[in-house]
Amino acid sequence: MAKDGFYYSIRKGDTLSDLASRYKLPGWRAIYDHASNADFRKLRPNPNKIEIGDRIWIPSKLASSGKSPSGGCAILVKKNVVEVQITVKDKTNGDPIKGARVTAMGAEFFKGLTNDRGVVILSRVPSGDYLLVAEYPKYFSGKVNLAVAGERSYAIAVDLRRVPHFASYTTNNEIFIKFNPDNSEKVKKCKKIVHVQFVRKYVDSKVIKPGDWASQWTYRNRLTTAAGWGVDCLASETTPDYQQGNGNGKKNGGSKIAEIYDAPKTSNGDKMGFYHPTTKPDGVKLYRNEFATFAYCMEGDECGTWYEGITWTYRKTWQEMRDGKIGVSTITNYNVAAPSQSHLDAFDKFNEEKGFVPCE
Hints:
Elements: E1 5-9, H1 16-22, H2 29-32, H3 38-43, E2 55-59, H4 62-65, E3 67-68, E4 72-77, E5 83-90, E6 101-105, E7 109-113, E8 119-123, E9 128-135, E10 139-148, E11 153-162, E12 169-171, E13 174-179, E14 190-203, E15 206-208, H5 210-213, E16 230-231, E17 249-251, E18 255-256, E19 258-262, E20 286-299, E21 306-317, H6 318-322, E22 328-336, H7 341-354
Parallel strand pairs: 5-11
Antiparallel strand pairs: 1-2, 3-10, 4-9, 5-8, 6-7, 6-9, 10-11, 12-13, 13-19, 14-15, 14-16, 14-17, 14-20, 17-18, 20-21, 21-22
């Protein structure tokens, strides 16, 4: 049995980029360029055109190290095991963690929440390789160690620390982002904490400018960098803060949570539209927005300072469009230390185009 990953069969709506994100790999090339996928590359020379049923190898460094900085570890479920018991404990004091989300990801997916004893039982699990991930919404899973305690029992010891966006959550296409400055490692004193939200648009894994999808977003083209990132804003707005005065936070003689609400949605754009087997065979099969939302001090002693952020996606498939569904928002990382250079480039571009001078 190979020990550096597992085979996966492509399902409806899958893309290599989404699979890389799901299995915590650095990008789609980590899958497509892997040596075990040589035959797959010959079959699919265009990585954007994969088919349901294609069999690919998902590599994982986790399988050889047993540890992951992102909260995962690789396990082998042995032959004929149909019920797997997983215990999640605090690594520091050994206390059981109630309400941890445990996911076993492989050829099939199994999910569950731990009980008062920190235990979850996943039933009817077939043999195979799985990536085992434990997440706790109020904390960041910094380190995970795996100890195999027999053929059917596994234990995860998690290093936990609070993060400021722990209370953020999604419901269908909606997202509620909440930043608690008291849980931040960076905030010392700030009179006005806002969120700056960056967005990048994709169609079928290809980055596009907003106006390429719909004319109503053409004004954002000049705010979008060559890498596709732009500050999420309305045409009339002249400051980069998403909430525009609603939901500001602070840590200045008392603390207040900074919060924003978003509910992205889309239908057919007037420039591009969704695939339909009879009416639009050349249409888009997957529309996706990638978001990175960071807390930012806009006024006070730390004005101009970036705090922690959260990343999330909104996606809608052609099947969802056909069925009248609105699409789904999903949080991908509760705790991002700081904006990337690509995000900062988009921030500078906004400021240049809109004439905004931070802390002036």
